[in-house]
Every structure is written in C-alpha cells, then in structure tokens.
Amino acid sequence: MPKSRIRKKAGYTPPPSKQATNIKLESRGWVAPVMLAMFLVGLAWIVVFYVTDGSLPIHALRNWNIVVGFGFIAAGFGVSTQWK
Q: Which residue in 8, 22, 60, 72 has the most C-beta neighbors within 10 A?
C-alpha cells in the first residue's frame, strides 16, 4: 500500500494588529455636583419632614413629602447616568 503524502502546515500568521482609536469623552463637569445636590436635597427633605412631625417642608402634601424626597434622590440617580 502506498504511503500518504505528508502535508505541510502553513506557519502561523497573527491577524493584523488593530490600531487604537482615540475616544474623545466630553467633559461633563456639571454632572457630579448636580447629582450630589439632588441626593442631598432629597435626603434633607425627608429628614426635615420627619424631624418636624410633618409640618415642614410642605404641610399640604402630608405624607407625599416622602415621595418628593425620594423623587429628588431618583432624579440624582438619573443624572448619574450622564457621568463619563
């Protein structure tokens, strides 16, 4: 029986290197201060509501003052998505 031919494998050639592309991130210096301000306003709103037994910040809202405080905190999280 005849012997099979031995196939020569081609040498390994690495794929061409990718050139790094410069990603220019725009500076958004306003995001961190606004985010922290929203967090602090929301926290202060809730604390003032509890400390004054519901008479402040807005008496007409009664327990909805808690929702307003958490709304400020949620808005702070929404602003934080713009941070790069």
A: 72
Long-range contacts of 19-22 (CB under 8 A, 24+ apart): none
- The answer to whether the predicted template modeling score (pTM) of the entire model surpasses 0.85 is no
Taking the C-alpha atoms of residue 41 and residue 76, their distance in angstroms, rounded to an integer, is 10
CA distance 72 to 35: 10
Single-letter amino acid, residue 50: Y
Amino acid identity for residue 54 in this structure:
G
